[in-house]
Each structure stands twice: as structure tokens, then as C-alpha cells.
Amino acid sequence: MSLWVDKHRPKDLMKLDYHKDQAVRLKSLVQQSDFPHLLVYGPSGAGKKTRIMCLLRELYGSGSERLRQETMHFTTPSNKKIEIMTVSSNYHIEVNPTDVGIHDRVVIMDLVKNVAQTHQIDSAGQREFKVVILNEVDDLTKDAQHALRRTMEKYVSTCRLILIANSISRVIPAIRSRCLTIRVPAPTETEIASVLHAVCKKEGLSLPPELAMRIAKSADRNLRRALLMCEACKVQHYPFTSDQKVPEPDWQIFIRETAAMILSEQSPKKLAEVRQKLYELIIHGVPPDVIFAGLLKELVCNCDMSMKCKIASYAAQYEHRMRLGNKPIFHIEAFVAKFMAIYKKFLEEALGDVF
Amino acid sequence: MLRPSKGKKWFKPVFDLDDNLPAKKIALDSPKVKSQDDEKNLQFASNTNILNNVRDSNWMKNFDPVNVEDLAVNNKKVLELEEWMKNSCLKLTNDILLLSGPVGCGKTATIQTLASKYNIKVTEWITPLDIEYPSEYGDYEFKEPQTKKFLEFIINSANFTSLLDNNSCKLVLVEDFPNIFLRTPAEFTEVLTFNAVTLTGLKGALKRASTIMNNKFSSTYNNPTTEIIDSVVNSSGGDVRSAILNLHFACLKGSTCNLETSIIKEKESKSKTSTRRKKNVSNKFMTLGKDQTVSILHGVGRVLNPKETVTEHGHKTLTHNPKDIIEQFLSHPSSFINFLHENYLPHYSCAYDVDEAATALSDADCMLAEWREQICQEYGLYTAVSGLMLANKSPVPAWNPVRGPKTMKVIYP
Question: Which UniProt keywords apply (chain B) (predicted)?
Fold first, then answer.
């Protein structure tokens, strides 16, 4: 039994639930013989991958859905052996180069070279090119991005790249200009609600519209999260009632607790406790930038306007440094310490006014 | 560990079992003697007198303490040990004592002197190497296991006495206790800890050594001046053995007679470290003595508990300069910074100070990530160390255990 998210993923461009105009355009793009490199970007849970899989099906037919997992091995120039998981069909290969950290350049160069050097045997009924899908392009190192740029030009005849990113601000302009950039915006809440209804109908469940709307609201315009929440609701309590509790993701609650701890006391001892919480979050795979955003959102609730401004700017500063540095915990902790200092000063001044 | 025997009740064995044990020590020392011999041969081929003196197989023995008064160890410690020896050996109760202390603080020397004072025979165990040379087929053969050897040794040495000695008491001295038996150090009922030798103790020992030099070996050595003795004391760091070695090197006659210029040069290159309390300048050898490398934990302690001294002009300066701390250890910058990050919080008392410190660490991490410039590593380390030291305006004086940095790998279910 698979999750609803995977089970009810649309497989045809024409069956997508929203951004239909874009889907039509994509279809006509594919039907023409040539096909440029693509850079698909948008927030998570907006349906980037769904659209790309639909596109591949449109290109190659149902053969592109027979997937297999493989581990590929590469050797870095410094003779270090690295391995990376790939998902591939006969027509495409998908890889997440950031899995190997700073060695992503080697993966990109070797992988694209491998794929591009093998031509399709039977080119009569098929397309002349294979597709390489690269995930999380915005987290690639600068080195890898430049390598990507060169390989893109070199192997354009035998292989097409589809790059996936959350934001193109961290993709170098050279790559941006070589790709057709397609933005997939997050669905609106009403769109999410309608998708929820459709899925529940397929599952044979009845979903009250109020609950659907509440789930959509708390899902933060992330369709995947909305579907997961909806399924969690069903497990928790069925038949649905319109006032039932929508379960929140655990990490959100955890971050909120952490923020409450920071606000309760500003001392080195408290910071040590906060650090333990942060470790916990990081170890469980919550991305550090999400931790930053979550903490900031919770912390600024208790601040006046000028302080909000100050704290947001510090958060941005430390988040930027985190991107430059190696260890995220250093920078999150520095931000928490900075907030503690500012908040403590504010409290002391406020108390000084009282007396 | 010491172990008196019950030897009295036993017959003497037919052959002596333990006469080959101290051989290792001599073997260790002999290459040095040889090389010195060679030097001398080059310089004073004619002067046979010196050669005679130095040819003694273990010239360090010349300076070994003879009486209890000669020991550089704290008197109280010596008394304690003496007390224990009297109790356990002379009254023939079987007892074990664990002696601990830094290298060269005179553990073995104290035992040897005391034993000779009470006429007790000392049998010594030195842990042998496990691995033999590879056989023809290239695989290593293990000889008898250490445990077996050790037990055999203990049984033999405890039960039998040598044919050649006539006294009844016996001590078994185990240097480098085989670690296979060290699982539970708490089992040792009696533990005596020696500290590093104090400056005055060292000075006394060296004075004695210099009188020996004057009286017996005046042909080999120059008479060491008090300056030289001071320098030796300063550069040895509480280690008597290395102090004697240094003194030996500093006073060798050849260098002063023939290599006058180099000696002057060496004197110039001595670093001047002023000790404030005595208000006099004492020297330290640049080329001799132990290197003051600091272990990583020591370094962490120095950074997190910054000490300040006030100069004559009323300025405050750090006792341990951040630059010196950085120069004094050899590990990779990032591992040191991880240690600092894991441990700095309990030493801070004020949220404002923590803010500064955390920012310094964050800066340092950015710099360390820049792998293309080697100098960035150094700068990052400097930023972290000096940032942490300067930010802490009111350190918490309590002792905190140092914890190792955490690995922050994401755990996938």
C-alpha cells in the first residue's frame, strides 16, 4: 500500500489539477521535435516532479515509468571513491548530486558524459536524446555549476538536462540563460482543497469542505504536505468530522518549543539546552534553513517593530554565513545568542522604565 | 607496582630466571653513547682520557642519586614511600602499590634509592613487544601472549630468589604495567601519585650533578655556570631525566673549546622569558629541552578560562597569547574549533558575552570553509580563539569536564 501522495500522482499532462495552461504549453513543447534544457523551479510541494514525470511519459511513452534503482561509483581526482544512488529508466536517469557534498562536480561531469556518450540504438521510433534529471541544483557548489555549464554545451546533441531547484537565485546566470526556465508556483488553498476532495473521492471517503479548507490552510500551500496531513487525519479519526484536529508536523511543534525556551530565559545555560534541541532537529534531517525560518517566525512574534527588523536582518546575515560555512549549528547558535542578547537588553530597558 | 616476595620460604632456584630483563634499558641508551663517542673521536682523537670516561655503558648512572637526600622528589612523598616499604617489605606482608606521575619525575629513581638503602633486591619487568618479525610467508607470528609471559614472570620472580644474592627481601618493579591487566585500576589498594619535580628540587639535583661533574669528570665537562643550570631548569619542565641530559649536552667540553662561536650564537638565541615573581630574567634554551606542545584539551582549557595579567602601565593582557596557543598545538583547526564550540557555553555567565563568542565562532566557520586559501584556516582559528578569549569578561570559575564534539550526521530511518 503506498501513500496517497504517490498513489494518486497524475501521470498525464492533461490530467494535472492546476496550472493547466502551463501543461498545455509543455505538451506542445514536447510534440515539437526539438526540446531545450529545462530548469524547473518552485517551492516544495508545488508539483515540479509530477510535471516532469508527465513530460517524460509524453516523450517516451509508458517505458519511462519502469524505474530501477542503481548505485553508481565515481572516483574523485584525489582518488576518493564515492557512490551515489540513481533512479533510472531506459530513457532517463535521475540523480541528486548534493548527496556527495563537495564532490558533486565529479558526479555531474562523469554522469552526463556516460549518458551522453551512449546513443540510442533504435533511433527510428525513439527520440534521439536521453534525459538527465538533476535535483536540488540550487544547492550545488559553484564548481559543479560551472562544470554543468560546460557539459551542457558539449553534449547537447545526445542528452537533455532537466534541472530542479527551489529557487533560481543561487543558480549561476550562465546556467539560467542556457535553460528554458519554468516556474511552478505553489497551488492556492482552494486548489489544494479541490485536490483533497478529488483524492478522497477516489479513495471512497467523504471529506467535509470545512476540514479540507483547514488542512489546506495549515499545509502552508504545500500540496504534498496537505495530502500527507489528510491521510494522517484519516488514520486518526474516520469518518471525518469538520472540527477534528489537524495533526501538525512534529518538527514544527519542536521548533515552537525551542523558540519558547529562548524567550523564557536568556542565559548561557539556556542556550546550552537550546543547542541540544537544535542538534536533535538537525540529526532528524530537518534542513537548517527551515530551522532558521521557523525560529525567526516564532521569535519575532514577541518583538516590537524596530526589533523585528533588526532580528530579521541578523537572521538573514547568519543564514548567509551558514551557506558559506560548513557547520550549520555554529550559525544557528550564533543567531540564537544574538537574539538572546537583543531581547535581554530590550527587557532590561523596559524594566528600567518601570522603576 | 611493587611486590615483595615470600622468597624466604623457598629454596633458591637452580638457575637465575630474570637476569636478562633489564637488558632493554641499556640497549636503549647505548646508541646515544656511541654517537657521542663518534663525535669525540673526531674532535679529540688524541685525548683518550675523555673516551675512558664516556665509555661507561650507561653514563646517566653517574648522576643517579645515591642517598635519599639526593632525590629531587618532594620529601613528603619520599617519606610516604619509605613508610610503605618498611611496612610491606620488612614485615613481609604482600602488598601492591601503584606509583603514578609524569615522565621523569623520579619514580623509579626513588624506588631504587630506597631499595638500596634497605638492602632490598629489585627485579624489573619491562613489557616486551608482541609482534615478531614476519616469517618467510609474510605473516606475523605472535609469540607467547603477554599475559602468559607476565604471569610466568611474576610467579618466578616472586617465588625464587637469585643464587647470587643473599638477602631475603625482594621488590618486583613493573614498569609499563601490561595494559591487559589494567581494566580495573581501582583494584590497586594503594596509590601514590608523584608530581612533576619543582624548580628548587631540580636545581638541587642539577647542583649535585655539577659537583659530580667537577669532581669526577672535569676532563669531559666544563664547570656548569649557574646561568646554564637556570636555563636547563627552565627548559626541562619538571623532568629530571631530560634536565640531566640537557645539562650533559650544554656542558660538554668539546663545544666550548673548539666551537666558541657557535656557543655564543646559541646564547644569543636563547629566548628570554621573564618570570614576574622573582623579577629576574632567566633563560631558556631554544635548541634544547622539551617542546612546549600543548595537548588539545589543555589548549581548550587555556582558551575557555582566559587569565589576565596587568602590566606595569595598567594595561590588561592575556597571560597566554592567542597566537602562542595556536602555535602550540598540531591538530587540524576545525577539530579544535569543534572542541571549543562544544565546551564554551558553561564557561560564560552573561548572555551578551555569549553573543560575541558565538558570532566569533560563526565567523571562524566561514573562514574555515574556504579551502582554497591555506591562510584562511589560520585566520579562522585565530578569530575563534581570540574571539572566545576576549568575549569572556566574567568567566565562570567552576571546573567543567571537556566533552568531545558531536557528529551531526543526519540519521535516516
Answer: ATP-binding, Cell cycle, DNA damage, Nucleotide-binding, Nucleus
